[in-house]
Specification:
Elements lengths: L17 E4 L2 E4 L7 E6 L6 H12 L1 H6 L2 E7 L3 H15 L7 E3 L4 H5 L14 E6 L5 E7 L7 H17 L13 E2 L6 H7 L5 E4 L2 E4 L2
Parallel strand pairs: 3-4, 4-5
Antiparallel strand pairs: 1-2, 3-6, 6-7, 8-10, 9-10
């Protein structure tokens, strides 16, 4: 850690937290057994963040359908979050039904490396963390202050991770459910010889796809 900046690591336990939210106190352990998308935004009542929150809200049921919960965060107060959620409902007609962490002391933001001094001293950058049902951090994506995320891509990534876990496969660029998946490369010359005759769609011994 340098100057209070910490960076979590993929495939290691996600930093534990206990924090007040718009739905009461939430802990990382509360999400055990389900996937969690934890995402930060620089500030309430800002245009880019508002578009992101509306998109998360519109996809909320799709996330829940694949066993995934959403949890937002910013370094605004609990009261600011409540007012912002009400404003989004009143002005845009969108109901935000997932909780938002009020992280005034920046404890969660610092634990997850959301504070980037080069971007802003007191705001969390647009960071997204995908945590699996065992509490392990599986993916993280950082965006600059000026540009919004694609929520559909985050949803796609969760589906891809779940597919890899369930089937022991990898997924190619832009993979969507129903597309062919990539079979893990053979680990020995003997396996490589067998691979091309195992019934997969192979371009070469190291690059084979199959349908699930």
């Amino acid at each position: 850690m340098e100057n209070g900046f910490n960076m979590p690591r993929i495939n290691e336990p996600a930093p534990a937290f206990e924090a007040p939210t718009t739905h009461g106190v939430k802990r990382l352990q509360d999400y055990r057994g389900r996937w969690l998308v934890l995402f930060s935004h620089p500030a309430d009542f800002t245009p880019v963040c508002t578009t992101e929150f509306m998109a998360f809200a519109k996809h909320h049921q799709e996330f829940q359908a694949i066993g995934t919960e959403l949890l937002g965060l910013s370094i605004d107060s609990h009261y600011s979050h409540v007012a912002w959620v009400r404003n989004i409902r009143e002005k845009f007609g969108v109901e935000v039904q997932f909780p938002i962490i009020a992280d005034l002391k920046m404890e969660v933001a610092r634990a997850y490396g959301m504070i980037h001094p080069g971007a802003a001293d007191t705001s969390a950058v647009r960071a997204t963390f995908i945590i699996d049902p065992e509490g392990v951090l599986r993916a993280m994506v950082y965006y600059p202050m000026t540009n919004g995320r694609s929520i559909e891509e985050i949803l796609r990534l969760v589906k891809a991770l779940q597919t890899s876990d369930q089937n022991g496969v990898a997924t190619p660029e832009g993979w969507q459910p129903g597309d062919k998946v990539i079979v893990p490369p053979p680990a020995s010359t003997e396996e490589a010889e067998k691979r091309v005759s195992e019934g997969y769609e192979c371009v070469d011994w190291y690059f084979c796809k199959k349908s699930l």
